Amino acid sequence: MATTQSIGFIGGGNMAEALIKGLLAQGQPADRMLVSDPSPVRQTLLRDVYKVEVAASNREVAGQCRLLVLAIKPQMVQTVVPELAGTVTAEHLVVSILAGTATATLERLLGGGVRVVRAMPNTPALVGSGATALCAGCQATATDLEIAGALFRSVGTVCTVNEEQMDAVTGLSGSGPAYIFTVIEALADGGVKEGLPRSVALELATRTVLGAARLVAESGEEPALLRQKVCSPGGTTLAGLTALEDGGLSATLIEAVARATRRSKELGQST
Asked: What's the CATH fold of domain 7-166?
């Protein structure tokens, strides 16, 4: 997403860093990105490692940039966003990555008339393999969605959903990497239990998950069909799958998505 437009980041945490890294790789000039963050450690890292400009305040970022990425914690909405009202105008596009925070909430806190696109990326964006869902606020245009999409395609894939689906996105892909980290850890633990060195077990578990995900993505086949192809009658895979069924793995993962979705809704109700 190489552009002469300045991009402002309000909040310089991990996701902002991932986007900055991705944008730099796509040709966005470092001096066309401006970041504010209350942590001196983060300020130094972003300035020294990525050579981006660091602002003295959030209002300075909003005053200089018309494309703003709101990358703060959801709990900070009521303190940070109202301070931007008046500085952020209808000329701005605000892209929010705040879990559970509705576009209507941000529009109200910013004083109305502001174009807002809500995004839910995930942490694999840190290595350019993120999955991001977008939805538009009532003032945002199709062009605004395209601009936001280009921003997040610098760190992975992008899809568009209705806003009422964003809590489910949060429960699935937003929180999902943590579920998969747990699966990788458990597979490695199983390998260690059966006699493999820890380093070997973790490498095999990691590459197995990575390869299986890539096979689903590139083959276009349903996971159930791919699973069937791995299973031989009376074989080792069926024995392992029986253990997963006995332990309720599928039901547990479904419930994990459901609970994370409910928590996203709760966060939205508190803002």
From this structure: Rossmann fold (3.40.50)
